[in-house]
Amino acid sequence: MTSGSIVSAIVDSSKNRKILLEVASQLGLNDFNVRTALRADEERLVALLVSALETKPIQNSILTLEDDSAQCFMDVVQDVLDKGCFSMAPEHGSKARRLIRKLSESCERLPSALFITGVSGREEHPTFGGGFGDIYQASYDNHVVALKHMRHFLRGAELRRIRLKFCREALLWKDLHHPHILPFIGIDRESFPASLCMVSPWLEHGTVLKYLNDHGRQNVDKLLFEIAQGLEYLHSQNIVHGDLRGSNILVNKDWSACLADFGLSGFSEGTTGQTSSKRAGSAYWMAPELLAPEHFETKFSRTPASDVYAFGCICFELYTGRPPFSELSEVGAMLKVVDGKRPQQPSDGTPVITDLLWHNISTYWVQKPTARPLAKVVVRNMAWPASEQETSTSSNLNGEAQGEADGGSMILFHVKALYDYEATIDEEFDFQAGDVIAVTATPDDGWWSGELIDENRRVSGKHIFPSNFVRLF
What we know:
Elements: H1 3-27, H2 31-53, H3 56-62, H4 67-82, H5 90-107, E1 115-116, E2 128-129, E3 133-140, E4 143-150, H6 156-173, E5 186-188, E6 197-201, H7 208-215, H8 220-236, E7 239-240, E8 249-251, E9 257-259, E10 266-267, H9 288-291, H10 304-320, H11 330-338, H12 355-364, H13 375-381, H14 388-398, E11 413-417, E12 436-441, E13 447-452, E14 464-466, E15 470-472
Parallel strand pairs: 1-5
Antiparallel strand pairs: 2-3, 3-4, 4-6, 5-6, 7-10, 8-9, 11-12, 11-15, 12-13, 13-14
């Protein structure tokens, strides 16, 4: 098949499927025959998509699609992704998402599956305001939700730029699923006649800064641990947040931290070629290589290392209530940071920053980007302290950490489950919040090996679990 015929076949597949279902209904075909035909059609479609994803001329042809043809293509590919057809070949899924992002940028459209209906009760005035958007409270599915609305007074090239930013953020955010990432519900196009809104749960505790001001700082270490886990998850997905600061971290109904606002987020260099390179952002949290790239003989590019620097600033901010060098103007703070200066360890405040935490912060915001630790190391450093009873149990368990698991593997250490988890593949095992797990291997992909301490619930052959659902015990 030619490039054009492959693209046409993918675009037309949605219409053809609809025709097949209508004919089946008219002729009274049984469900088995219809399912067989649909399965064959789906397999053919996936084969066409794989061919398109592996062939540059076909991709170039796809990126010339416009209007309804572009919409049909995005909807077909999104449907294939949602059904998990690329689950056995994740690299194809990544390429398909990247192609959707590029097509969305060229045609200024989004997959239909992202849109929701039924948002109601939108308040007349926004509760919060940002650079180019406002946050309104509304209702959806009997829950209070937040609407992130793009302001309508923008015009011309500036309006198009903000629309593209909106589409990029929505396409990135929709694929993020983690306990410490603010959930994406969908896109609403009914609340405001001329513009779109991103919809997320309304978190009544507000930002982590407001929460700490309202309730005190006794839980600051727990919140920092949760923020670190959210950041580690983003980096495991090859995503750089790009704008980490206290006002972009919310606290949910369970009193846990959730990373939000992915407007400056992008993909890590070396994975998709789409690094976040816009110079917007907040100077007090920006790494020195972002403030003065020429000083480091590099180009402006947000990276996992610049996120880790920002996390160090968040540690300082959550303990003190202010970002580093907040007593200076932005320019004054920038000059200090570029010159390698950092704030002194605070000696006052409740609670105080311990020497160990200050040592860790110093490694997070060290001047040289390559000297900063990876996010997974930050998570281990920030592990939230256990209770006195757990500490005693942990000492007993980890005193035996050099023992062997059932399969003969050496036990490295123990962790405790933060949340319930249901296995999704044969090699994984289920666990519940509070379960203790003996860890036997810690691969870089975040899927660790181990076994439940509770022998009665172990299942032979199941030894894999996600490390972002546990903490050091």
